[in-house]
Amino acid sequence: MPKKASTSPEDEKEQSQWVFLAEESALTQDTDNSKPVICRLRHPRTDDGAMFMFSCGDTLVHEIIVFQEEYRSWFVGQTVQEDGSLYLTTRVDPIFLVLPYLIKAEKKGKLMTSDQLVIDDDFPECNRLLSCTGLNELHHVCDIKGDDDLKAYRYNKDKTLLWLKLKVTKLADRLQEKRINVSSGAAAASYVKSLKTEAGSKDDCIRYAHGMVSDYLNEEVSQELQEYLGIQNLQDATPVSEPPTKKAKLVEKVDPEENYYSTPTGKSGSQKPKKESVAQKKLKQVDKSGMKNIASFFSPKIKKEAK
């Protein structure tokens, strides 16, 4: 029986490597020589587990997004990486990840201290969020009671909607500044009608920015934010009036008033008869009896049958 080929540690390393694009800030080591940590956290939109990466020292948190196609591989050095997936990191405000825990506690009428802020038995690594620098902005979404030694937090809906509105407005202004096409469909920006772009660019950017921010909000908060911003649903929105498109004018088939292929009839109102030449007048005076028509000379001759 043939022996199985043993897998060397180098082969195992090649099979487990990934192609990763990450911000430099996420990979820069701290003074304590800590390394980035990849773990699963509860996603605020789906309430399911998703992959996130904490930077060195847990100061920043990034979501890991995977781009993959069916037939794709990587050439890495002298090897071929079978998994052609591309892993990207995008920085996330940690308040979005903490917000579901605050809303859940507020519905139970509870105030949460800092050590109780994020406790999740299913995702124990969530306590790393407490070290993120962004959590010093919790006063934008919470009512805070107590002093510096002991603070208690309670979710505030009005503050949260105002904070989210600022996020959406800032993002919409950035989209408009960069002249990014946010209209529906996959048409290139150069092919979008100018009237539609100018009339709805601000509203389109607000709607698009709301959708991007809602990627980190549950359905209830996303709907509340939509009403707070005054965004209409696409099916309820009044369509922007546009000039009608120019169509080729359809012309019905019209027969000519006169038949130019036939001999003039000489009716009243028709064209005047042409004057005859002297030769034509003399030809009319010639006796044509016994003369053959010129066409008879070109007609086929009929052979007589043999008796």
Topology:
Elements: H1 9-16, E1 19-21, H2 24-27, E2 37-42, E3 49-54, E4 61-67, E5 74-76, E6 79-81, E7 86-91, H3 94-107, E8 112-113, E9 142-146, E10 151-155, H4 157-177, H5 194-213, H6 219-229, H7 278-285
Parallel strand pairs: 1-7
Antiparallel strand pairs: 2-3, 3-4, 4-7, 5-6, 8-10, 9-10
Summarize the structure.
The protein has helices spanning 9-16, 24-27, 94-107, 157-177, 194-213, 219-229, 278-285, and strands spanning 19-21, 37-42, 49-54, 61-67, 74-76, 79-81, 86-91, 112-113, 142-146, 151-155. With 307 residues, it is of the alpha+beta class.
Report on this model:
With 307 residues, the protein is α+β, with helices and mostly antiparallel strands. The chain contains 7 helices and 10 strands. The strands form 3 sheets. It has a 5-stranded mixed sheet with strand order 1-7-4-3-2, with no helix packed on it. The chain has a 3-stranded antiparallel sheet with strand order 8-10-9. Strands 5-6 form a two-stranded antiparallel ribbon. Helix 4 (157-177) packs across helix 5. The model is unreliable at 1-7, 186-191 and 193-200 (pLDDT under 50).
